[in-house]
Specification:
The complex is a heterodimer of chains A (about 350) and B (about 525).
Chain A (H helix, E strand, L loop, with lengths): L13 H14 L1 H16 L2 E2 L2 E2 L4 H26 L7 H17 L5 H25 L4 H20 L4 E2 L11 H8 L1 E4 L2 E4 H19 L1 H11 L1 H6 L4 H27 L1 E2 L7 H11 L11 H20 L4 H23 L1
Antiparallel strand pairs in A: 1-2, 3-6, 4-5
Chain B lengths: L2 E10 L2 E11 L4 E5 L6 H8 L7 E6 L2 E2 L5 H6 L2 E4 L11 H5 L14 H14 L15 H14 L4 E5 L7 H16 L3 E5 L3 H7 L2 E6 L2 E7 L5 H9 L3 H4 L10 E11 L7 E11 L3 E6 L5 H8 L8 E7 L2 E3 L4 H7 L1 E4 L3 H5 L6 H6 L7 E2 L2 E2 L1 H14 L16 H14 L4 E5 L7 H16 L3 E5 L3 H7 L2 E6 L2 E7 L5 H8 L2 H12 L1
Classes of the chains: A mainly alpha (about 350), B alpha/beta (about 525).
Chain lengths: ~350, ~525
């Protein structure tokens, strides 16, 4: 068989071997990044009563809990970026959905199921609109979703009447069902640890998205569209359909993140989720997904989200102002992209 | 010697593009460089113009070592190249293009438009080109654009001018004009390297000719001391029969029937890119389509494959007895067509994706069960194709751009074959492939025809068309200007049909009157 008839391999010179080790490191940049930041965080962490606060299981659970919300959005963002697009509206759609969730329960008396269905529908509709407008009118998704950012936030503000809608849980009129809180902000006791439910959503979505990408025809098409949309089209892939659906999924996942967010902070506010697009894109990029499309993984993005969460956490533990966090995050995003571009050559 | 190329080698992943090439170009001569696609001509020219800097070997210009860091360096040394694809900015004017990056300024540091326009006008007159320098490039004909490139080279005081297939898009009168310019430049002492496929042109204007084959230097001779046959033999390096293993196949029933197919020109231009094309292809038959650049060869395949907006397409397509409406590549594939595009890297392959994934993309549905990929089935198909087409790769998971051009092309063909097409459309199937791989592709095409696939092959290389095709369709300005049977066709007959546009035009004006 011709696959095996490769020429005999010589031992490459040292410079080349170092090159290939470097390449290997780059290939799994997100994993090594995670290990590095874990070690640095553990070393820098304040110690109280002889216990490393950062490594405390409860703190670690917090890290993952806060990674989850951004992580879920970032998984949707990964799919969009894999097709060569971008979605800047995720934070605004989250705000719209969070306000929607609060309004449905507090103002319209919806139950948990009805609220969840309606909120997810709103998110998906916003995403599908992004996709439809981008493909139908051939507008770059950067612009379409920037417009959606503005529109979604506008609607959210109007709907909420300019203020946050607080969620009060309990049985009775004008109260939100407690099952909502339990479903999206509860904890599950496993092996003596109270695991936040967000973590299960995060991991569950991660697994589903990975299967979608790696095991289904649709996943193959997502990579193909981002890799070379002309070649994909000439191979019979309905490129526009793939793009629209991917934006729909991204909107849907923003809506899911909105449910988690509203349940956690007990309110739905039109200013929720500002800057989330940056966090999501950062997670995707740190995870090694190419902004050009066609190359990347969901696992990488999940690790990227955890890395960002660790960063927030350790800087918080060290009492460093959030302004510095923002600056550091920006620097890390640029570094991740630089490493990625190096990797290609 | 004005320019000396000494032991120059250059390799790309999977291909040795140039192997130890040495020859010299004399002051003031027109030096033709010939060779088949993939012989290494373009690579050598890119080295001479400073595009590729990582090569082995040495260049000297007027007995001084020449090391070029970038294309600008080449310009500074008086080397200018006119590419097959023109490097002009269509939105800008002639003057702006000529002076791009070296604009003239007034004392107030504003652009000195008048001085630049005057200089540009002078250059245009020198080239016998009667156009205002403030016209935009977009409004010019291809031949005129080419001369603007020449003007730009002259304004750079080029002493060495490289012309890479300059006539491939030109009409006869434009070619005449260009040749006049070339002789005039030669009088002025400009040295030229002229790359072309068209041997008759070379015999008209060149002083000496150098042949490259498979990246190797074959020889340099004064043009009046070598016959056409000898030149071709040097280029091809073997008998045509060994290169083209066409097997005799008795064609079966008609698979594809095309009636009055027309394609309207896009955008502002009125008229047709293709007009009233009718032909049919039988099972096992190879039909060649040829013509000059811009004749509508690629457009014909694209129209069949549903790439153009259905609003621009008229006519009737019947495949295996069923009339088909093909409005998208998706429908074309479903109807039983498969398309190997001319531009592998941009249109057929996803270069950073694996060999396997590229192969199965078009036929994905075959491997799906409830939208889940059945990996064993997919792997089996990939292995089968790899063996059948003798694809040389280190594995199915390696990125397809690590393969050589020939093997990449085989991956594209494998992708098409997995869709089990009735009709295979091939657009320049051997472009950018070295000679050995070419022969393999020809064998493959021949074998597919034998297995009963109907094949339409577009090619600009007449030897390829003559050797491989049962029938030849010649296009000119979107019209069919000739169909020939294998048994009674010659290169001259094809060329005559391919340049019949003047005749077409005369007929049209007669009709209008």
């Amino acid at each position: 068989m011709s696959v095996q008839d490769t020429t005999t391999r010589e031992i490459p010179p040292l410079s080349k071997r170092i090159g290939s080790i470097w390449k290997y490191l780059m290939r799994f940049q997100s994993y090594f990044g995670l290990i590095a930041i874990l070690i640095i965080a553990a070393l820098l962490s304040p110690v109280r009563d002889g216990r490393n606060i950062f490594l405390d299981p409860r703190n670690m659970l917090n890290v993952v809990r806060f990674a989850s919300e951004n992580g879920i959005i970032a998984i949707g963002m990964t799919l969009v970026i894999l097709t060569g697009g971008i979605d800047l509206s995720v934070g605004a759609v989250l705000a719209l959905c969070a306000v929607g969730a609060a309004a449905f329960m507090m103002h319209y008396g919806f139950g948990t199921v009805a609220t969840v269905v309606c909120v997810l529908a709103i998110g998906a509709a916003a995403g599908l609109t992004n996709g439809f407008v981008s493909t139908k009118f051939k507008i770059q998704s950067f612009i379409t979703t920037l417009a959606m950012l503005s529109i979604a936030r506008g609607i959210a503000t109007l709907w909420a009447g300019g203020y946050a809608i607080p969620l009060a849980f309990g049985d009775g009129p004008d109260l939100a069902p407690p099952s909502f809180k339990a479903l999206f902000a509860g904890e599950v006791a496993i092996l003596g640890l109270d695991i936040p439910v967000q973590v299960f959503y995060f991991i569950g979505i991660g697994i589903i998205a990975t299967i979608l990408l790696k095991r289904t025809g649709f996943g193959r098409y997502i990579y193909a569209v981002g890799g070379n949309d002309t070649a994909a089209r000439l191979s019979g892939v309905n490129v526009n359909r793939v793009r629209v659906i991917v934006f729909g999924i991204c909107g849907l996942l923003s809506a899911l993140a909105a449910l988690l967010h509203a349940a956690l902070v007990n309110q739905g506010s039109p200013i929720d989720g500002s800057g989330y697009e940056l966090n999501a894109i950062a997670a995707v990029v740190i995870g090694g997904t190419s902004l050009m499309g066609g190359v990347g993984t969901v696992v990488g993005t999940m690790i990227g989200a955890v890395i960002l969460s660790i960063l927030d956490n350790i800087l918080g533990l060290l009492n460093i102002e959030s302004e510095y966090q923002a600056i550091l995050k920006g620097v890390i995003i640029v570094l991740a992209v630089v490493i990625q571009q190096r990797r290609r050559y | 010697m004005m320019l000396e190329i000494k032991s120059v080698s250059k390799s790309f992943p999977g291909v040795q593009a140039l192997r130890n090439v040495s020859f010299g170009v004399q002051q003031g001569e027109v030096h033709a460089l010939v060779g088949e696609n993939g012989a290494g001509k373009s690579t050598l020219m890119k080295i001479l113009s400073g595009v590729y800097t990582d090569y082995q070997g040495q260049l000297t210009l007027n007995n001084h070592n020449l090391t070029l860091q970038n294309p600008r360096d080449a310009q500074r040394h008086g080397i200018a190249i006119i590419h097959q694809e023109l490097n002009l900015i269509p939105e800008l004017t002639i003057t702006e293009n000529i002076f791009l990056g070296r604009e003239l300024y007034t004392r107030l540091r504003t652009l000195d438009l008048r001085r630049m326009d005057q200089a540009a006008a002078k250059l245009l007159t020198q080239l016998n080109l009667n156009i205002a320098p403030n016209r935009s490039i977009r409004s010019l004909r291809v031949g005129e654009q080419q001369l603007v490139e020449v003007a730009k080279a002259l304004s750079l005081k080029a002493q060495l001018l490289i012309l890479d297939e300059p006539t491939s898009a030109l009409s006869e009168t434009e070619i005449e004009h260009l040749f006049q310019v070339i002789s005039a430049l030669k009088q002025q002492g400009v040295t030229m390297i002229y790359i072309s496929h068209k041997l008759d042109e070379i015999y008209r204007i060149a002083d000496r000719v150098t042949v490259l084959r498979d990246g190797e230097y074959i020889g340099t001779t004064p043009i009046d001391q070598i016959s056409v046959q000898e030149l071709i033999r040097k280029m091809v390096g073997r008998n045509l029969n060994d290169l083209f293993p066409k097997e005799k196949v008795t064609p079966g029933e008609v698979v594809l029937q095309v009636e009055n197919l027309s394609l309207q020109s896009d955008t502002r231009e009125s008229g047709y890119a293709l007009k009233d094309i009718s032909f049919s292809v039988k099972r096992g038959e190879i039909v060649g389509v040829t013509g000059l650049m811009g004749a509508g060869r690629t457009e014909l395949l694209e129209t069949l494959f549903g790439i153009h907006s259905p609003r621009r397409v008229e006519g009737k397509i019947t495949i295996a007895g069923k009339t088909q409406v093909i409005a998208s590549p998706q429908q074309a594939l479903k109807a039983g067509l498969a398309f190997v595009t001319e531009d592998r890297k941009n249109q057929s392959l996803i270069v950073q994706h694996s060999v396997g994934h590229n192969m199965t993309l078009a036929a994905m549905k075959r491997f799906l069960l409830f939208n889940f990929i059945q990996s064993p089935l997919e792997k089996e198909a990939i292995q089968e194709m790899t063996q059948k087409l003798h694809i040389k790769t280190t594995g199915y998971h390696v990125p397809v751009d690590t393969l050589s051009g020939g093997n990449q092309q085989k991956v594209v063909i494998a992708k098409c074959l997995l869709t089990q097409p009735e009709v295979l459309l091939l657009d320049e199937p051997t472009r950018g492939i070295d000679v050995g791989a070419k022969a393999e592709i020809y064998t493959l095409i021949s074998q597919l025809a034998k297995e009963g696939t109907a094949i339409i092959m577009v090619s600009s290389e007449l030897p390829e068309i003559l050797a491989m095709c049962d029938r030849v369709i010649v296009l000119c300005e979107g019209r069919m200007t000739g169909t020939f049977d294998r048994s009674d066709v010659s290169q001259e007959m094809i060329m005559e049909a391919a340049t019949a546009r003047q005749r077409v035009r005369v007929e049209e004006t007669e009709l209008e009157n």
